[in-house]
Amino acid sequence: MPADEHAISPFGDDALTVAIAEPVLAIEARAELLRAEGWAEAVLATTGTLTLRFDPLRVGADEAASRLRAALARPAPPPGAVAQEVVLPIRYDGPDLGAVARMANMTTGDLVEAHAAATYTVAFLGFTPGFAYLDGLDARLSDVTRLASPRVRVPAGSVGIAGGRSGVYALPGPGGWPLIGTTDGRLFDSSADDPFALRAGATVRFEPS
Hints:
Blueprint: E1 8-10, E2 15-19, H1 24-37, E3 42-46, E4 49-53, H2 61-73, E5 85-90, H3 97-103, H4 108-117, E6 120-126, E7 131-135, E8 151-154, E9 158-162, E10 165-168, E11 173-175, E12 179-182, E13 203-208
Parallel strand pairs: 5-13
Antiparallel strand pairs: 1-2, 2-4, 3-4, 6-7, 6-13, 7-10, 8-11, 9-10, 9-12
């Protein structure tokens, strides 16, 4: 897609966002190239959107937009070049495990088996930093809905189900997803250039521990 077809918009004083009509794996491939250039503070790929944060003391907004536009003018690398494969250990000890099983008309054993057997793809990251929305959930669990009253604080590493997806909380925070388990996999490393372990397009499997 030519660069002038991308509408780049400011997102606060130190970020830009752009809609991209490409598969999420292709958008993540573009994000990986931008990270490698080294001038962006952070680059986040989601379904249909790329958001980039920059340091306005080093790179002005106009210059950042120009660099982003130039990057978008280049063909994206093959998506497979940046795909991750991540295996997360999981304990099925979530406080909502029984309620989710009843909602899905399954035994807890069947629920655990169904969730662990699936291979997931990170569709995008949102609503709290690093929260991974995972496609690939067993269809029998597709009718599980969010909690009527969200929790004020959900621990990091919590694994939930809602709206036809599974989700993983990289950081503690509020949340309304029914929780079925916990992973001790390292999802956030503040010392790393890219602190979150999961990216859009990554393949994720859960391994009961």
